[in-house]
Amino acid sequence: MLVLVLLSTFILAFGSYDLYSRAKFPKPSGQYQVGTTLLELVDTARLEPYTHNPADHRRLLVQIYYPASIKENSPTVPYSPSPVAIEEDINSVFRVPKLLIKRLTRTKTGYFDQQHAAPIEKQFPVLFFSHGWDGNRFQNSFMYGELVSHGYIIVSIEHTFNASGTVFRDGNKGGVEPLSKMKDTSFSSAMMETWTKDQQFVLDQLEQLQQGGNYFLADQMNLKQVGVFGHSFGGATSATTLVYDKRFKAGINMDGFYFGNAYKIGFEQPFMQLRSDNKRTEDMSDKELKEFDASREYYQYLIWDEWNKRINAFAKNGYHSFTVKGSNHMSFSDFTYMMPLAFITAPSRDEHHRITNQLVLSFFNRYLKGSKDPVGVEKELERFIND
To answer: Top-level CATH class of 26-386?
Structure first.
């Protein structure tokens, strides 16, 4: 009895401490340190589809992460420059208590801003990243550092008015959309088109900056070797972008249903999808289906039948597909860092992140750097992956 009392007291005390602690990102394993800088871009050729104001053009915040040489004793940057805005938006959409969100938004990443981080004098492939529905440009920071440390430049786009915590330099804000809007097929298809055009526009702008020669990363960006990847809605956007823009040489979807109609056209570039460990339809309880907000028939359609139909139509030359055992939808993002007492609430978080990083890195190494290593068959990963 005394042991149980002591154990309960320890868990309560440690839980209280852990609740107010901050997330800690693992140190990247590659040779390069990580610099980061912000671009604010305006697409004068497109009106902002959310505001319906003829005076508003599409504005985007783009966070770039690059291999860097760091000045001694330099300070690292916070997770986000606008933590309050992220906390308010995520709370409003996902109902996550702000106290938990702060575990992530008030931490530091171990990355360095442009003032303290000189770019390495070498060219690197460029990877475009798109966040999930109402995510943000920082939401996969656990990946950015690892990929950059192994010789990539990351271009993370924040899709305005469908992202949490968007605050422009002039103080204007973006906004978020209810999750229910994804079920409106006309709306989700329109957003898929908008996000795809966002990616194409940002690549156009980087090409112009490189041609101008004055941008401080102009010589480092290998814009002939460009990949695209994302989480959830952003992952599905990656597939659509491959259809409409051949400048993107390879793509990855991390657990995003393939919205829109671009699958009817398809692409030929190399592709990989990473999926969460979803239950088979017959194994889902009525309670789980209610939490998923789906009938048994709709769950089968969305998670299995239609998903498989669309990826098979999309990838004309085949694709790599892995299910990470024990993972859920948020396992492919930073959001699991919000959970206190991780050894209970998210016991496999670090393993899921490590596996995701290794799969993504090996895929892009093969298709953008010409590595002969196979994708995702490392012995140490076998017990975590369903191929």
So the answer is: alpha beta
